Task: inverse folding
């Protein structure tokens, strides 16, 4: 969640920003320029080790940037339904436009319900075409400010430094509107964003503090790894006494190397830390306890996004197991979040950002505030007391979002024998039905030497100078034809009917 419940220890925290986009569109150049320009003079050059994140100050206000291309922690954590960043910058090159990785990054942003800014980069390049980029983004349902939408954007040249200040100001404005807060009085929690073995110092990790305050002398647990916090440093390698919310901090001395993307928690005593590690191991050993971290390959299939909120964790996993039995080549169920607890406002925000998504609540409550937000955002929620009813409900929901299929029925074929006068909207032809029948208002394909070269629609049909509804083989006919290309003697027209039918699983 972006914010915690307000307490007397609540503080405004800096925004955490991730930069995403297609390869070679300038993500690294942008981050390099921001770091060199906004980290205190003399200190930027002191960053000798890549730790995955750093802090900058713009107009006296701090911003935390995640600094790993295609950030591993970001991609791994989003598949588990947890948030790493608060704001995303989607970088799109002005001379290259929207590319496959642009679309992937956009899907990740929307799946995480992340506020985001579009940075149109490389405006200094000779082939830059900002308007084309904006149009391509609109096709991906990214509607920018000034073009009928509310997604902020800046035009930049990361190489020359143009527009960077405006981009940072937009981040700070967005952060002010979102009002990111944290309870500084709690024990720290957050995400492991980098891990490596330092030959001199041992297992070392960069932790992104999402909430609470991390202090020297406390114990940190990340999955099966734990350590007492003896060495605590900032992104410049300087010693710290504490790590505040939104800070990237380096902790040294883990007994095992923590996984990138896993969540961490801080504790007062070693006993509490060891108990937490044991709980994690037990949870991992249970059947179906591990959520699949792979992002579903959506391809051309329709995707139904599902958030499951249940009374206890075990119920959520049982529901997931039942739902996974519903298989279809035409539609895929994507689990956006599986958690125990009440349906939250953040659940509604997540679902509202993803097309064809729904919240399933099992033996858990939904507050009036959540119901009101869901109604405003058009989010569908369904509550259940019996697990198997969820499968039945989702089956019907899947059918309802399947696109209608076009059923085509071939009526017959006819040979064009003669051309008459041309009309304003088509031409009059004479022919003979070779197979089946031709019907008034039927569509047809034009075949010339057995190759399809066009299409059209039959208007009026005459047989023996009388207007008829259809004419069957082997009769001759006259007809008014509206074609995409002019018909010629010797052409074959293949008539057919099309109707929309509801898709089936």
Result:
């Amino acid at each position: 969640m972006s914010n915690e419940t307000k307490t007397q220890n609540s503080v405004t925290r800096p925004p955490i920003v991730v930069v995403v986009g297609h390869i070679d569109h300038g993500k690294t150049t942008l981050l390099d320029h921001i770091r060199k320009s906004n980290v205190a003079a003399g200190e930027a050059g002191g960053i000798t080790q890549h730790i995955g994140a750093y802090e900058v100050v713009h107009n006296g206000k701090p911003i935390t940037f995640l600094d790993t291309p295609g950030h591993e922690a970001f991609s791994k954590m989003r598949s588990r339904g947890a948030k790493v960043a608060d704001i995303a910058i989607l970088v799109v090159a002005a001379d290259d436009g929207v590319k496959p990785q642009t679309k992937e990054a956009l899907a990740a942003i929307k799946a995480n319900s992340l506020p985001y800014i579009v940075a149109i980069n490389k405006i200094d390049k000779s082939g830059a075409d900002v308007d084309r980029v904006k149009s391509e983004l609109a096709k991906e349902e990214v509607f920018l400010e000034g073009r009928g939408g509310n997604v902020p954007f800046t035009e930049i040249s990361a190489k020359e430094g143009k527009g960077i200040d405006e981009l940072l100001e937009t981040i700070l404005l967005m952060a002010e509107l979102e009002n990111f807060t944290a309870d500084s009085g709690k024990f720290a929690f957050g995400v492991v964003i980098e891990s490596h073995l330092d030959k001199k110092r041992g297992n070392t990790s960069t932790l992104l503090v999402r909430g609470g305050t991390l202090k020297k002398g406390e114990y940190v647990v990340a999955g099966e790894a734990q350590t007492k916090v003896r060495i605590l440093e900032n992104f410049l390698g300087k010693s710290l006494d504490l790590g505040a919310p939104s800070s990237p901090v380096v902790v040294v001395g883990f007994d095992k190397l923590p996984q990138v993307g896993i969540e961490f928690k801080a504790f007062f005593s070693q006993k509490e830390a060891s108990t937490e590690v044991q709980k994690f191991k037990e949870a991992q050993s249970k059947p179906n306890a591990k959520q699949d971290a792979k992002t579903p390959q959506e391809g051309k299939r329709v995707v139904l996004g599902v958030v499951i909120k249940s009374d206890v964790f075990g119920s959520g996993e049982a529901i997931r197991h039942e739902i996974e039995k519903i298989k279809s080549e035409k539609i895929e169920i994507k689990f956006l979040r599986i958690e125990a607890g009440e349906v939250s406002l953040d659940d509604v925000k997540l679902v509202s950002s993803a097309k064809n998504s729904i919240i399933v609540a099992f033996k858990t409550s939904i507050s009036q505030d959540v119901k009101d937000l869901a109604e405003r955002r058009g989010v569908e929620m369904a509550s259940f007391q019996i697990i198997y009813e969820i499968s039945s409900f989702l089956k019907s929901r899947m059918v309802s979002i399947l696109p209608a299929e076009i059923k085509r029925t071939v009526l017959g074929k006819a040979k064009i024998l003669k051309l008459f006068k041309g009309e304003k909207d088509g031409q009059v032809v004479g022919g003979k039905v070779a197979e089946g029948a031709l019907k008034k208002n039927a569509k047809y394909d034009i075949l010339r030497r057995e190759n399809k070269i066009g299409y059209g629609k039959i208007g009026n049909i005459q047989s023996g100078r009388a207007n008829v509804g259809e004419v069957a083989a082997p009769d001759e006919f006259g007809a008014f034809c509206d074609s995409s290309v002019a018909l010629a003697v010797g052409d074959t027209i293949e008539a057919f009917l099309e109707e929309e039918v509801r898709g089936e699983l």
